Amino acid sequence: MLTADGSQICLVESQQEFEALCTAWSARDCLAIDTEFIRTNTFYPKIGLLQLNDTTASYLIDPHCISNWVKFTALFNNEATEFCVHSCSEDLNLLQTSLATVPNKIFDSQLAAAFLGLGFSLSYQALVKLLLGQDIPKDETRSDWLKRPLSSTQLEYAANDVCYLLTLRDALLEQLQSKNVFAWFEEECALQIKIATEYENQASWRNTYTTISNAWKLDDEKLERLQQLCFWRELKARERNKPRNWIAKDSDLFSVANQNESELSTESLENLSLSDRRIIARYGAEIVELINSPLPDQGVVDRTLLNFPLRPPLRKKLKSCQAVVAVLAEKLSMAPGLLARKRLLQDLLRDYENHGELRWQGELAGWRRELLEPEIKPLFS
Question: What average pLDDT does range 182-199 have in this prediction?
Answer without folding.
Answer: 96
